[in-house]
Design a protein that fits this description.
The protein is α+β, with helices and mostly antiparallel strands. It has 16 helices and 17 strands. The strands form 3 sheets. Strands 1-16-15-6-7-5-10-9-2-8 form a 10-stranded mixed sheet, with helices on both faces. It starts with a helix and ends with a strand.
């Protein structure tokens, strides 16, 4: 700031000197009429070419002044400005302030009024969507939901009407939401208060491995027909109608099977069960619906039976689906109606894909005794193989297995198990449309079925292993019209070896046997008596209750599933 003051002094010096009677060089001026002229002399100031400010050899009077160091790159403003600082405080403070504000005014005496102020910007409030209706009117609108409303071109009401019409045009009703039926699941049987809970098994703890040898066939009963090769050429473009017919299938429980009673009397084994019940127990970790099995332990023997009104003989549909099912029991898409439809489709498929004369097994069908003659001509051709396995620790299990047909290759008879996957409505079931994707993407269709019906396909895999069949014949059946559940078509058939299909499912036979072995072990730990194994409808666990003997005798069932 010193050069600026020197410049100002040199600028105004002539006028001051002229007023005082001095010359610019400081010598007294000569005035007319006066003999003595006053003189003016400036301080000697030396400049420093390397820095700003006074040097050490400058007069000591200058050192008493406060000095603010400047960098040569800094901008220089006014020496003192009493007006602009008040008018534009931030502008000049940011533009001309240096590193040390030693000349700034500081008032440090009064600290009572000092307070911190939060200058951080507050987050802006999000624009909330404005409600279309006030609260009272919105409640009134909910009460009128489903009633006919006046036609509107725009707005939410008009949009809802258009969406509703679109849904009705495709599948009559709105698509269900995820997880709505989780709290509506009911147990397969009502558990009385006096039934004592003796053991609880977590489903995750049942998965363990047990290696067993190949089963031994003790007795064969019934009759079979040969596989119809023409069904290997069926495809969606040349579909074959599923023939309607009156068929009867025997599903007699374990303790009422005369062959099993004969084998038990001969002490061929000490554990007896049918393949349907054994598959339910083996695949318990994959199940979602509730089911129950009756166990009778007496004199060192264990019999696994079903209740007279049990539904384990019916095939589930979309059991592992993560969406809710139809709640209207009168609808053809209700789970119970779908289970009956899938079961009858499988019976018709088993009967239709075989041809030729009946081939007798070692014995006749053991369940024909006492059956009316009119029913004898409508029986489904089927064979029963009674097979035995050693589970270790003195446990010999005998299982009644079903065989659906055979085919001859190289003069040797090869048995197979036939099953059918059915499509009821692609838009509602979450599966892929059979007619559009089955021929070109059959793998994707099967993968979707494995996801939604994993438990059902796992039980088919277990049955194929237990029966000793060489192949699993898998058919794809769909409705002719999604609105009618009595007319169906066969679109495709595929064959799988038992082990290959198990690999696709990610199932190991030793895990199936290990699961069954753990359940048998839990029963062996109990005293003689009757027990009920029930799959909890909510929690993933099995509960074993001690029940009175013959508690389900009042239920009426003849062991025959009639075809409708």
């Amino acid at each position: 700031c010193l050069p600026y003051s020197v410049g100002q002094a040199s600028l105004f010096a002539p006028k001051v000197m002229q007023a005082e009677g001095l010359t610019p060089n400081g010598a007294p001026s000569q005035k007319e009429g006066n003999g003595v002229i006053p003189a003016f002399k400036l301080f000697g100031i030396t400049s420093d070419p390397t820095a700003w400010g006074p040097r050490d050899e400058d007069p000591p009077e200058l050192k008493k002044l406060q000095f603010m160091p400047f960098n040569k790159a800094d901008k220089l403003g006014r020496i003192s400005d009493w007006n602009m600082a008040q008018q534009y405080p931030r502008r000049y403070q940011q533009q001309f302030s240096g590193g040390n504000n030693v000349f700034n005014y500081k008032h440090e005496d009064d600290e009572s009024s000092f307070a911190l102020v939060d200058n951080t910007p507050k987050p802006k409030a999000k624009n909330k969507r404005r409600k279309y209706f006030p609260q009272p009117r919105r409640r009134f609108n909910n009460r009128n939901r489903g009633r006919p409303q006046p036609s509107q071109r725009g707005g939410r009401v008009g949009q809802a009407r258009r969406q509703s019409k679109r849904r009705q045009r495709y599948h009559f009703r709105r698509r269900p939401q995820y997880g709505r039926d989780e709290g509506k699941r009911e147990p397969s049987v009502h558990v009385e208060e006096d039934w004592k809970l003796v053991k609880t098994l977590e489903l995750s703890s049942l998965r363990s491995g047990l290696a067993v040898d190949e089963g031994k066939t003790l007795v064969t009963c019934g009759d079979l027909r040969e596989w119809d090769v023409s069904y290997e050429r069926v495809n969606p473009r040349a579909a074959i109608d599923l023939k309607a017919g009156d068929l009867h299938v025997f599903t007699t429980t374990t303790s009422q099977d005369p062959v099993i009673q004969e084998l038990a009397d001969k002490k061929e084994g000490n554990i007896f069960v049918t393949d349907t019940i054994a598959a339910v127990l083996m695949c318990a970790p994959y199940s979602s619906h509730s089911w129950d099995v009756i166990v009778t332990k007496k004199d060192g023997k264990i019999f696994f039976d079903k209740r007279e009104k049990s539904k384990i003989d019916y095939l589930t549909v979309n059991e592992n689906w993560n969406e809710s099912k139809e709640s209207d029991k009168e609808s053809i898409n209700h789970p119970e109606k779908l289970a009956m439809e899938a079961t009858f489709i499988n019976h018709k498929f088993m009967n239709q894909v075989t041809k030729g004369p009946l081939v007798k097994m070692e014995r006749n069908n053991p369940f024909l005794d006492g059956v009316e003659p009119s029913v004898n001509g409508k029986l489904l051709p089927i064979a029963f193989h009674y097979r035995k396995w050693d589970l270790g620790a003195g446990r010999q299990i005998i299982i009644r297995c079903e065989i659906n047909g055979f085919e001859t290759r190289k003069k040797k008879r090869h048995y197979f198990v036939a099953r059918a996957i059915n499509e009821w409505n692609a838009k509602l079931s979450g599966n892929i449309d059979y007619r559009l994707k089955l021929e070109s993407q059959s793998g994707a269709v099967l993968a979707a079925e494995m996801k939604n019906n994993h438990n059902k396909l796992a039980k088919w895999t277990a049955k194929t292993f237990m029966s000793g069949a060489d192949q699993l014949k898998l058919g794809y059946v769909t409705r002719v019209n999604p609105r009618v559940n009595t007319q169906h078509q066969i679109l495709l058939t595929q064959r799988y070896k038992a082990q290959d299909f198990a690999n696709l499912m990610g199932i190991k036979p030793l895990v199936l046997w290990g699961t069954l072995s753990k359940i048998i072990k839990a029963i062996n730990e109990q005293e003689d008596g009757s027990y009920l194994i029930i799959r909890d409808p909510i929690e993933p666990e099995l509960r074993i209750h001690s029940i009175p003997e013959n508690v389900f005798e009042n239920e009426d069932d003849d062991g025959v599933i009639p075809e409708e």
